[in-house]
Amino acid sequence: MRCPKCACQDDKVIDSRASKEGSIIRRRRECLGCEHRFTTYEEIEHQELTVVKRDGRREAFSREKLRAGIQRACDKRPVAQETIDGAVGRVVEELGERHDREVPAMEIGERVMRELRTIDAVAYVRFASIYREFAEVGEFVEEINRLATQLPPDKRQMALIPEGEGPKN
Asked: Distance (Å, rounded) from C-alpha 22 to C-alpha 64?
């Protein structure tokens, strides 16, 4: 590692700590030439995924685009940012495990819908309506009915109660 002050390549590591859930290592270093201390970060280099669109086009996978799509679906819903971040992390991790270079856009959409189904029923239907390109009201009704049969009874009841009108203690 080259010292940012004197450009010497000899240094020693003073302290190492894992950060960001163990995916990054922070190292404090001291230059052996000028004794300047500096910090470096080390992380696993992931091979970039390419998304294969429905029409055959290819584009670089964007974690931020994924986050924005999930965020839009959860807009004005009682979903914490940590929950959204967790969903993004799980989707990215699974895609990375299952694909080396290219991932079909359809698989990303299906994976996001599985996440949203467990997070919030309304966010799931919002995302599904765009992803599956619903053209008629009947398609919304079919999807909501399908969702209702898949939810456990307590979640089904809570999905029917308007926000702010739930049980009072």
From this structure: 21
